[in-house]
Amino acid sequence: MAFDIKNPGLATTVQDQGRVGYYNVGIPQSGSMDQYSAELGNALVGNGPGDAVLECTYLGPVLVTDADAIIAITGAPVEVKVNGEAKPQWSRLHLRAGDELSFGVIQGGTRYYIAVRGGIDVPVVLGSRSTYTLGGIGGLSGRKLEAGDVVPVGVPTGDLPAVQVMPEHFRPQYAKEQTVRIVLGLYDHRLTDTGKENLLNGEWKVTPVADRMGLRYSGPGVEWKEREQPFGAGSDPSNIVDAGYAVGSIQIPGGTQPIILHRDAVSGGGYAMVATVISADMDLVARAAPGTATRFIAVSQDEAIVARKERAELMSKAWSALEAEA
Amino acid sequence: MTTPRPVLKEARYTWGGDEFLFVEVDESMSLAANFKVMSIARKLSDAALTGVVDICPANASLLVRFNPDVLPPSSLESAVRTIELELQNHDEQSLETRIIEVPVWYDDPFTAEVAQRFREGFHQEPDGTDLDYAARVNGLQDAAEFIRRHHEQPWLVSMVGFVAGLPFLFQLVERDKQLQVPKYLSPRTDTPKLTVGHGGCFAAIYSVRGAGGYQMFGVAAAPIYDPAQSLADFKDFMVFFRPGDIVKFTPVTEDEYNAIQAQVEDGTYRYRQVPVTFDVSKALSDPQAYNRELMEALNGI
After folding, report:
1. How many beta carbons lie within 10 A of that of residue A97, not counting itself?
2. Residues B32, B122 within the same domain
3. Is the domain of B113 the same as that of B222?
4. Nearest chain B Cα to A282, which residue?
5. Chain B partners of A185 at a C-beta cutoff of 8 Å?
6. Which domain does B194 fall in, by range?
């Protein structure tokens, strides 16, 4: 079976849990920006966590299914319509062959997910179905969806869970303010005390320059310590000899606007990174729409690892919540 | 005879959150630093530690991604520190690699067209060309002399990344002979695919079309990234370059460029390349003589 794409939406791509092991040649991990929401979409339709979904950005697609299908829409709040009739999010939906799925205006956040029983069945490239548009690999022909595309859906392997609706308390909040936990490090010693203070005490706002590669923030700016630049580093105090970029790391070119690198990150470059968003908060950052007021708080690596475990426990409880009551 | 290798101090270890270890071998770029990075990366890869996800050697630093659920950060750090210490005692001198001839159409119309669209507010000298600017800041006579300096000595691929398959290259010459050119004042939103660019002391070949801040000097004639894996050089992997590759740029004319394009089209193009053993001590003690030896290997094929 397949979905016929009538209108592709703004930037709809096939994504899964991502492609690891090729960052050393500049191929980023890719994968769903909001891994939590994408995975729970799979949970609702009886898929495995690694099945591929459609990631919709602000404006979703209009698509028609050519066979009966079981889907769930998770992620950012949006009006879901089947043949023009409103349907709930975070719930299992049954489509009949010929049904049209479309979306209203997004009510917050940035991205929502279409999970379908059987998963999106595009070829696996370097271990993943995720689309990396810059490199032209994965997904459907290595690009975002276009009108007229036929998106293949795979054969279901698992059983449907007993519960059809994800309980409210497992759904993420989409707030206009965020507190993002970071671990200072990498080149934070290159910031002045004032620079560090600005990063941690200032209020930062997500700018419209935000996509799968990274999010740019405006705010008070930071200060770099003056120094004679090392050979090969470039002339600005925010420059370093080109190095590998941690995913989630924060760089501040010229000291003005911090950039958080996200799942389609460039793998390296010549700007000093001063901190890294903890892995547990990467989904949170993915949900930040332009204008989101953001505070960065410093935590230790140990605290980051505790938060990572808590996230994994929450995810596993959400999967369990869909099983029938004993 | 060989002069002693410059002594590098102990690397700086720092963390990128809960999934990345960053090992800064040196703040400055040098062949010695890059060679140490590559040696650590190779030994770490050989150690095949469970929980290591990505090992990314860069110019003068190393980024390691790991899964802290499987491999505690402290265990990873001590494993890398042990490797670093071993290398101090049993210094590696050589690297099994290859030398590759990369044909370049210098001063080409593709990069010239894009450069014209990004002058005022982007470039240091909006009225001139990138090549003229590069020649001037290096105290060279003209663009022709800059081009000659660019291709007469070989380069080492010191890092692959930024985007898929993009090589950073470091010329195998003494520090005072390195070509250094500042990046654009503000990055362009467009760079032709296969642009041979330059920023700081590094050359780069843009594997895909896209944003970029490096000065543009020419265009490589054959692909370096081939997701369809249609050419023989890409049979095993879609990315051509690996850290440690040695590159000899060779200038080609428009006609030669077009002939290579035709071979790429019909799927017959092969890079001229040959395996070599790269000896870092020789490269540091007498680069010119050693480079001649390296480049001679290409004559045999």
Report:
1. 11
2. no
3. yes
4. B17
5. 14-17, 22
6. 96-299
Same domain, B190 and B255: yes
Q: In what order do the strands lie in the sheet containing B20-24?
A: B12-16, B20-24, B61-66, B52-57
Q: Which of residues 147-206 of A touch B (CB under 8 A)?
A: 182-183, 185-186
Whether residues B230 and B285 share a domain: the answer is yes
Distance from C-alpha of B208 to C-alpha of B199, rounded to nearest angstrom? 17
Partner-chain residue, chosen from B17, B27, B62, that has the shortest CB–CB distance to A279: B17
Examine the fold and report which residue of B24, B57, B92 is the final residue of a domain before the chain moves on: B92
Residue B119's domain is classified under what CATH number?
2.40.100.10
In a domain, B124, yes or no: yes
- Its pTM stands at 0.95
Token digits of residue B155: 């380069």
Do B161 and B290 have their domain in common? yes
Distance (Å, whole) CA B150 – CA B144: 10
ipTM summary value: 0.97
Task: Please give the helix or strand (H or E) that residue A259 lies within, else none.
Answer: strand A259-261
What is the secondary structure of B229-266 as a DSSP string?
--SGGGSS-SB---TT-EEEEEE--HHHHHHHHHHHHT
Report the percent of chain A where pLDDT is more than 90.
Answer: 96
The CATH superfamily assigned to A177-311 is Cyclophilin-like (2.40.100.10)
Euclidean distance between the first and final Cα of chain B, in Å? 29
* Domain CATH number, residue B83: 3.30.1360.40
pLDDT digits (tens, 9 = 90+) for B222-268: 999 999 999 999 999 999 999 999 999 999 999 999 999 999 999 99
Q: Indicate the angle between helix axes A35-44 and A301-321, nearest 10 degrees.
A: 20
Q: Judge whether B62 and B23 are in contact, CB under 8 Å.
A: yes
- Measured between beta carbons, which residues in chain B are less than 8 angstroms from residue A18? none
